[in-house]
Design goal:
The complex is a heterodimer of chains A (about 120) and B (about 110).
Chain A lengths: L3 E4 L2 E4 L5 E7 L5 E8 L3 E10 L2 E4 L7 E2 L9 E3 L8 E8 L10 E2 L3 E5 L1
Parallel strand pairs in A: 2-11
Antiparallel strand pairs in A: 1-3, 3-8, 4-5, 4-9, 5-6, 7-8, 9-10, 9-11
Chain B lengths: L3 E4 L2 E5 L4 E7 L5 E7 L6 E6 L5 E4 L2 E5 L5 E6 L8 E9 L2 E4 L3 E6 L1
Parallel strand pairs in B: 2-11
Antiparallel strand pairs in B: 1-3, 3-8, 4-5, 4-9, 6-7, 7-8, 9-10, 9-11
C-alpha cells in the first residue's frame, strides 16, 4: 500500500531532550516536506527536500534540522526542544518538485508535547 | 513574506445549504491545491488548479482559480454530513508550499 509513515505518533518530552521524528514513504517520491499545524495558523512548512541530499528551509525552520540521506526517509530532528515546539507535525511527499506540482501525500501526524 | 489568508475560519451550515471558502494570497501563485482534513485525520488532496481563471468541478464541489492567480475559492453545493472537516488551500511559489489557515466546516443534520 502506498503510504507515508511517521513515528512516533505521540510523544511527550521535556525541554532540551533531543528527539527525532521519522518519516518514510514507499512511493519513490522525490519531494518531501515537514509541516507543523497549530490552531488558527494552518499548516506551516518547516523544511523541504527536492531530492536526496537537497534540503531547504521553509517558513518556520528555527529549532529544527532535517536530513535526506535516502530517497524514502526524511527525519525531523529537534536538537533542544522547547515548549513552543509543542504542535502536530505532518510529513508529506509528492512525486516531483513543486514546479511540476503534484499532490502531496501526508503521513498520519505526530503529536508532540514539550514540557 | 508570503501569506495565504483563508476565510471564514469557521462555518456552520444546515445540511443541504451551500458553503464557500475563500483563499487570498499576497503574491502570485504558480498553482493552488485544495486539501480536506477530517477531525483527527491528516490532510487529503482534493484538486490542483494551474491556469489563470481555471474552474474545476468534482460532483458537488466547484473550485476556482482567480484571473490574477492570487485567489481561489471552493464551493460546495447542498452540503452533506460527510462534508464535515477543515478545508485548506495551499499555494506554491518556487519550491515552497503556503497553506491557508483553513476553514472548519460543521454540517448540522
Amino acid at each position: 500500500e502506498a503510504q507515508v509513515t511517521q513515528n512516533p505518533r505521540y510523544l511527550i518530552t521535556v525541554t532540551g531532550k533531543k528527539l527525532t521524528v521519522t518519516c518514510s514513504q514507499n512511493m519513490n517520491h522525490e519531494y518531501m516536506s515537514w509541516y507543523r499545524q497549530d490552531p488558527g495558523l494552518g499548516l506551516r512548512q518547516i523544511y523541504y527536500s527536492m531530492n536526496v541530499e537537497v534540503t531547504d528551509k521553509g517558513d518556520v525552520p528555527e529549532g529544527y534540522k532535517v536530513s535526506r540521506k535516502e530517497k524514502r526517509n526524511f527525519p525531523l530532528i529537534l536538537e533542544s526542544p522547547s515548549p513552543n515546539q509543542t504542535s502536530l507535525y505532518f510529513c508529506a511527499s509528492s512525486l516531483r518538485g513543486l514546479a511540476n506540482s503534484n499532490e502531496q501525500f501526508f503521513g498520519p501526524g505526530t503529536r508532540l508535547t514539550v514540557l | 513574506g508570503q501569506q495565504v489568508m483563508q476565510i471564514p475560519q469557521y462555518q456552520h451550515v444546515q445540511e443541504g445549504e451551500d458553503f464557500t471558502t475563500y483563499c487570498n494570497s499576497s503574491t502570485t501563485l504558480s498553482n493552488i491545491q485544495w486539501y480536506k482534513q477530517r477531525p483527527g485525520g491528516h490532510p487529503v488532496f482534493l484538486i490542483q488548479l494551474v491556469k489563470s481563471g481555471e474552474v474545476k468541478k468534482q460532483k458537488r464541489l466547484t473550485f476556482q482559480f482567480g484571473e490574477a492567480k492570487k485567489n481561489s475559492s471552493l464551493h460546495i453545493t447542498a452540503t452533506q454530513t460527510t462534508d464535515v472537516g477543515t478545508y485548506f488551500c495551499a499555494g506554491s511559489a518556487g519550491n515552497q508550499f503556503y497553506f491557508g489557515t483553513g476553514t472548519s466546516l460543521t454540517v448540522i443534520p
